[in-house]
Amino acid sequence: MKKRKRAAGSGRRHPRRVGWWLRLCCGGLLVIGAVLGWAVLARQFAPRGDAGAGLVDVLVVLGTPTNQDGDPSAAMLDRVNEAVAEYERGVSSRILFTGGAAHNRFVEADAMARAAEADGVPQAAIYRERAAQNTMQNLSYSLAVAQANGWRSMEVISSPAHLPRVRSMLAALEANGVRWRVHAAPEVDTPAYYRELAPAVEVLKMAHFLLWPH
């Protein structure tokens, strides 16, 4: 049998098709780069809040996952310990812990409240918001608790890398008369790998917030 001759040029990509895919890939990379650059700038210039440097009506501690056995994680303990220190300094007579069972079956607010009680904070000074599943809900639900109780100012405590996104979210929410500021929890117990990765992760999360703010 005679072998069929391969048609000239068969098996090769058409130059126009290759060029189209190349332009598409380059365009996609430019868009991704622009969004990430936007996120970096948004973190740099996030609003600072208007609660000043004085006393506040409530300290709000943002949740983070517990360990798999329900005990507070290292990052969680850093936030709780700083909230307890602020409480003992007299910055506020109330602490609101916010966070539901977002990452496992354990409610973050409950784990943080238990840790604060173990450090000597009385139950009467502790409030819990047990439903939030993400940072935006942490903040919006905490603002709702503040408004329901007539609190007019709050200090939001979280890990340093988290705070630029927190500030942007607070600025985007309707505070309805509640003045706010943020306060970084020193990362004493938080593992080094977590501290090193957190800024890069937060840039991605900020980009997500900028594109889908709700």
Would you kindly provide a written description of the structure presented here, covering whatever features stand out?
This protein has 214 residues and is of the alpha/beta class. The chain has one domain (58-211): HUPs (Rossmann fold), CATH 3.40.50. It is 48% helix and 12% strand. The protein has a 5-stranded parallel sheet with strand order 3-2-1-4-5, with helices on both faces. Helix 1 packs across helix 6. The termini are far apart.
Brief descriptors of the model:
214 residues; alpha/beta; Rossmann fold; 5-stranded parallel beta sheet; 6 helices
Low-confidence stretches: none
CATH topology: Rossmann fold
Instruction: Give average pLDDT, whole number.
Output: 91
Number of domains: 1
Total strand count, please? 5
| CATH architecture label name | 3-Layer(aba) Sandwich
Radius of gyration: 24 Å
What's the structural blueprint in terms of helices and strands?
Layout (H helix, E strand, L loop, with lengths): L14 H30 L13 E5 L11 H16 L5 E4 L9 H11 L7 E4 L5 H15 L3 E6 L4 H10 L6 E6 L7 H20 L3
Parallel strand pairs: 1-2, 1-4, 2-3, 4-5
Helix pairs in contact: 1-6, 2-3
